Amino acid sequence: MVFSSIFFLTYFLPTFLLVYHFTPRESKNLVALLASILFYAWGAPEFLGIALGSILIDFYIVKAIYHGSSKIKKQLLWLSILINVGLLLYYKYFNFFIETTNQILTNFGIESIGWTSIVLPIGISFYTFQKLSYTIDVYRQVRSPLKKLIDYALYILLFPQLIAGPIVRFQEIASQFTDRDINNYTDKLYGFYRFSIGLGKKVLIANVLGEQADQIFDLEPVNLNSSLAWIGILCYTFQIYFDFSGYSDMAIGLGRLMGFHFPENFNSPYISQSISEFWRRWHITLSSWMRDYLYIPLGGNQVKSKLRLFLNLWIVFLISGLWHGAAWTFILWGAFHGLFLIADRLFLNQLTQYIGKAGRVFLTFIIVMTGWVLFRADTLSQAIDFAKTMYSFNFAPIPNFASLELLITLFIGITLSFLLIVPSLNSFYSKFSNGTSTINSLSKFFISCILFAFSIAAISGSDFNPFIYFRF
């Protein structure tokens, strides 16, 4: 079940919100948990037992960590990490490991290994990181564990952010399971507004651009020229942003409707002036998770050797790339960004001071867009061929790929992505989003209704409605 489906928007969500609203405060977590279990089971019933079983085991392991001696704490910490990372490695990477091994064996003339392909449980990358943050935060005594199994299960399975984030760390939301404002109508209006903004991003922009990007990336190399390649990657660049940030907006909005405050996940990433800044603005919850639970434990910025510092950065981004997908294209995408993060620190930030703010934004955008080729391509050879075509500058007419709808959508996507680079517009947007006056509230409600209605119409008229990050 996806947020942008007719069933979710017209049946599941209204029914849930109605029941949730009239449920007594002490039972709201239970209702939210049951709805979340139904939401997950709708898309992956065969994996529900694994998710619930691991939640049950983790809940009692972490309780034992909290009350145990220093020696047993560390052993139980590693047990919890082993269980959660082990499940992630098995379900997400076992196929990749066997396929890679078979390629090596075949090259040496050895018979390949037979195996049954393993299906990836939806959302496992996201909820595994949340489970790890719970265990580590309790171990570090940042927070005490939740007292009720229902509350912990809800933290892991809460349906607004279960499938594709944002990655909500335990310390950011712990108190909200027992003490949250569930009758704040300003929050509810903001939640509807934020959900509608995200739905509009996904349905009205990302879907249109995604359909075009798919057509171009599906072309054979002989039918591709530089014009098509640049249009294809431009469409994908804005598709993935509006798809993923749209999902995050919807998740944050749904959380607000339930009384939860989730962290922001995007902050106009395409206006970044360096790759380092890009990662402070793109998928913020993943970047901060990697920083606090991986980069800093490796030594962070406190290491004495620059070589060790650069190695730590590269390790983090190689793991980040692998986290996104079990393929060499994702690993190389992570290495690509790690390389430019190191270049930022070595010379790139100093060098780009001479090209001005606009020049730095443009250069960073081109680097990011080139990296998306690796992210989008199905194979490494396709990524190489596509990038070669882009940078061969063999431009040709593109009459069949320049529809009016595409051009208008692309213009809107570009405008919205770079709009907040203007300080006055950034300030206006911030004031409008956080405003609570009557005029402000009525404006938000009107915008929300319009976007919601247009999105429903668009969904009804199209069967193209993927969510990019569902496969992670």
Automatic annotation (TrEMBL):
It is a multi-pass membrane protein. Its main location: membrane. GO terms for biological process: alginic acid biosynthetic process. PANTHER family: ACYLTRANSFERASE (PTHR13285), PROTEIN-CYSTEINE N-PALMITOYLTRANSFERASE RASP (PTHR13285:SF18). This is MBOAT family protein. GO terms for cellular component: plasma membrane. Keywords: Acyltransferase, Cell membrane, Membrane, Transferase, Transmembrane, Transmembrane helix. It comes from Acidiluteibacter ferrifornacis. It is found in: Cell membrane. The chain crosses the membrane at residues 6-23, 30-56, 76-93, 105-129, 149-170, 307-324, 360-377, 397-422, 442-462. One of its GO terms (molecular function) is acyltransferase activity. It comes from the Bacteria. Belongs to the membrane-bound acyltransferase family.
